[in-house]
Amino acid sequence: WDSAYERELQTFQDIGDAGEIWFGEESMVRIIRWLEKQKIPLDSSVLDIGTGNGVLLIELAKSGYTDLTGIDYSPSAIQLSEKVREKEGMSNIKLKVEDFLAPSAELSRFEICIDKGTFDAISLNPDNAVEKRKQYVKSLWSVLKPEGFFLITSCNWTKEELLDEFREGFEILEELPTPKFCFGGRIGNTVTTLVFQRK
């Protein structure tokens, strides 16, 4: 991931392109619409897990959210998101190099946690993925306030699989509509977006 974000950082410095928006812009709109529909207060503390280029945080800030934090274990990703933040003039967004599987004590009591593809990336890790997924769930439980919301967008996991992964400590509130496709007579989704609440 470091080398990917180093390339995106260079591209941003060369031509001002922030790089890949995971799952497209509609995935960000879907998340923001849900927050607005639920009338989530604009001063709620929000953590973007695996923020990458930080574009989701920029969109949240443009929508009026004020307590925004983005973390990524890749220093190049945080450098890129800092540059994007500067370009957009959003100095109130906090960005930190942080490994979510071993969160620092500073990461705690968030009212909203958002994941667009980070759980997917951790799940694909060839080095003990099962244990890393369990650790992710533990980390999430420790950084999210009781009754806090967790919004996850995944292209690797179905709704049923995600319900199984997050069954301890979380309950499903809602599945957000995502694009569907038909293949071999069966209908499926290109991505899954679920909203959980911490018990």
TrEMBL record:
Q: What is this protein called?
A: EFMT2 methyltransferase
Q: Which GO terms describe its biological process?
A: methylation
Q: Which reaction does it catalyse?
A: L-lysyl-[protein] + 3 S-adenosyl-L-methionine = N(6),N(6),N(6)-trimethyl-L-lysyl-[protein] + 3 S-adenosyl-L-homocysteine + 3 H(+)
Q: Does the keyword Nucleus apply?
A: yes
Instruction: Kindly state which keywords UniProt assigns to this record, in alphabetical order.
Output: Cytoplasm, Methyltransferase, Nucleus, S-adenosyl-L-methionine, Transferase
Q: What is the lineage of its organism?
A: Eukaryota, Metazoa, Chordata, Craniata, Vertebrata
Q: HAMAP family of this UniProt entry?
A: Methyltr_EFM4
List the CDD domains: AdoMet_MTases
| GO CC annotation | cytoplasm
One Pfam family name from the record? Methyltransf_31
Domain of life per record: Eukaryota
Task: Show the InterPro entries listed in the entry.
Answer: Efm4/METTL10, Methyltranfer_dom, SAM-dependent_MTases_sf
Residues of the Methyltransferase domain: 44-174
Instruction: Tell me which positions the record assigns to the signal sequence.
Output: none
Indicate whether Transferase appears among the record's keywords: yes
The GO terms describing molecular function are: protein-lysine N-methyltransferase activity
